[in-house]
Design goal:
alpha/beta; Alpha-Beta Plaits; 2 domains; 6-stranded mixed beta sheet; 12 strands; 30% strand
Length: 287
């Protein structure tokens, strides 16, 4: 723990504070960019440059109470996962999003972070009209924003992931512009009803991952089943393997990759993934 304290004490911590539903997550990247901050903590997630690198989204919790606990990192195991990421990535500064100064204080305590360098308030970066519009959308449509991309391939979500926002940015005068994305979601405890995601979305993600895996020739079949009331989904997959690879080992690795990427990209709970090798593909010999 002494080593952890020494390492973490070098981190500059910034707070971005504002009432729930006023647009903090939407503006988080802008606030972080202005202060040259690459790491953001928002609703249980540690985010680096548009990518979730640790944590479990509080939006996945079944109740609002569980959401608050996850956002505060009250669970020691979840807090330790974030601390491990600190040790691995060694961030120089972090922007922490919270609904109050007390919430920020509890997150800092649970993650063993040093005292605040600066506190930014939503009223510093948004007008009263913009905050009121954000509140209206939250109350009437139940939409939330996570400051990470939905995913990098075809996007046709409806329901849980409601809309990917694309914002053009530039890293400098001579740099090409790039697209920064945020994901608008409706959490599972929303009073607005159940959510649905097209099976096609999951298949497209799985096919993309299969294309990047040399040991897999193609995916033949995918079945998606919902588990309980918003408890998660199960995936069944039949694939054709490429001859010459260790089938058991490759299937195990591909299974881990699929679970990790789908949960990171869609914020969905993946309860089970079953993958069955239904065939072997023998590549033609090159002359």
């Amino acid at each position: 723990m002494i080593i952890d304290k020494l390492l973490e004490s070098k981190i500059k911590t910034y707070a971005f504070v504002g009432p729930s539903g006023t647009g903090k997550s939407y503006r988080a990247q802008m606030v972080a960019s202005e202060r040259n901050i690459s790491y953001i903590i928002d609703d249980g997630l540690l985010i680096k440059d548009n990518e979730v690198i640790a944590g479990i989204s509080a939006k996945k919790a079944a109740t609002k109470i569980e959401t608050i606990k996850k956002a505060l990192f009250n669970n020691p195991e979840e807090a330790e996962e974030i601390k491990k990421a600190f040790r691995k990535y060694k961030p120089e500064s972090i922007l922490i999003l919270g609904t109050s100064e007390n919430m920020i204080k509890k997150i800092i305590e649970n993650l063993s972070l040093p005292e605040l360098t600066e506190t930014i308030y939503i009223s510093d970066v948004a007008t009263e009209e913009e905050m009121e519009e954000a509140r209206r959308i939250r109350q009437t449509q139940g939409k939330h924003v996570i400051p990470v991309p939905t995913f990098e391939i075809k996007k046709d979500f409806s329901g849980f992931i409601l809309d990917p926002l694309q914002i053009f940015k530039s890293k400098g005068k001579d740099s090409k512009p790039y697209i920064s994305e945020k994901s608008i979601i409706r959490p599972t405890f929303s009073y607005l009803g159940n959510f649905k995601i097209s099976d096609t979305v999951f298949r497209q993600i799985l096919e993309y991952l299969a294309e990047k895996t040399e040991s897999i020739h193609r995916i033949n079949r995918v079945r998606i089943d919902k588990i309980g009331d918003n408890e998660g989904i199960s995936i069944y997959m039949e694939i054709t393997m490429v001859y010459g690879y260790n089938v058991v080992e490759e299937l195990r690795n591909f299974k881990k990759k699929c679970k990790k990427e789908i949960e990171n990209l869609t914020a969905m709970n993946i309860e089970t993934i079953d993958i069955v090798a239904k065939g072997i593909y023998v590549p033609e010999e090159k002359e």
